[in-house]
Amino acid sequence: MKKIIILLTLSLLSSYGCTKQNSVVKKINVHNCSYVDEYFDYCKPEFINEYSKLLSTGTVNFNQKFILAPIGNSPNYSGIVAIDKTTGNVETMKFGFKQSSLKKQIESKINSDVFCIDGEVNSKSLSINNIGKSCFKFDNKGFKFLNQSKSESSNIYPIIFGNTNFKCGSKNCEFTSLNEANLNKISKNNSSSLRFITNEKGFDSSYLDASDDKNILYVIRYNEGDNEIENVNLAYFYQGDFKVKLLGSLKSLKIIDSRNIKFNGKDITLN
Fold first, then answer.
1. 223, 204 in Cβ contact below 8 A?
2. First and final C-alpha spacing in the chain
3. Please, are residues 152 and 131 in contact by the beta-carbon 8 Å criterion?
4. CB contact set of 26 (below 8 Å; sequence gap of 6+)
């Protein structure tokens, strides 16, 4: 009888020790709360609480031991983190992306160190302004943007205006009428800065999609005045906002890529 009591006591102590060991809470340790030139704060109190919940209940879905998850859902951009399930360390990203409720945007695999985001991704410090599929690779130094293969639209470069017509590569450029529906489409319904063109110029205005794999760019053309002088504006996204660069009367234009532009012999900066 004494032996049985001792065995029961040891069993209870052993069970208690296992329970205590399994209930150890890992401390959240965020690597880089924010970055120069970026505007997302990964160390907000509500985000720290979210990391703790993910660490406690989340399932590893990336690179053997990480929980990859979006953080925040502002009208502009969300961040993304990789939480080490074994240590509680939180790796943050130098970019933001626009979340969509209509589709799954983050693609990751438990046995891969590469993940992709389907949607709009922006980073000033990494010079990324991409719509479509953006992929990143993780190593000990953080996350690296993987250059995408050139899309068919890249074959339009260089875009050159001369002798009254536009050339896209070796072909004539194909412009599309800039009606209100198309304006809403290219601006993602943020078209107030170009509304005057569709309201005042009507069918005289058109646009060319001059985007590449990194940035969105549109060339807007319209005629103005009694002499029908051709004018050009550039429309693009910068830090998530749709912007317009008013260039004016067209004499010459050369676009090497979405951020290498000369208008009337002068370099154009888009910011």
1. yes
2. 84
3. no
4. 55, 87, 88
| Rounded CA separation 97/116 (Å) | 11
User: Is 16 among the domain residues?
Assistant: no
Q: Which helix (H) or strand (E) holds 46?
A: helix 45-57
10 Å Cβ neighbour count for 270?
A: 16
User: What single letter denotes the amino acid at residue 37?
Assistant: D
Q: What is the percent of the chain with per-residue pLDDT over 90, rounded to a whole number?
A: 26
Instruction: Return the SS3 of 28.
Output: coil
Tokens representing 159? 């875009």
Domain boundary among 146, 167, 184: 146
Mind listing the pLDDT tens digit for each residue in 118-171? 888 877 767 777 777 888 888 766 788 885 544 444 568 899 997 678 999 888
108: β partners: none
Q: What is the model's pLDDT at position 85?
A: 93
> Which amino acid, 73?
N
Whether the CB-CB separation of 68 and 51 falls below 8 Å is answered with: no
Question: How high does pLDDT run on average in the chain?
Answer: 78
pLDDT digit string, tens, across residues 6-29: 333 333 333 333 333 344 457 899
Predicted TM-score (pTM) above 0.70:
no
Query: Do 250 and 185 sit in the same domain of this protein?
Result: yes
Total count of domains within the chain: 2
Regarding whether 173 and 71 lie in a shared domain, the answer is no
- Taking the C-alpha atoms of residue 140 and residue 134, their distance in angstroms, rounded to an integer, is 20
Query: Of the residues 146, 162, 193, which one is the last residue of a structural domain?
Result: 146
Given this model, what pLDDT does residue 21 score? 39
The residues facing 182 across adjacent strands are: none
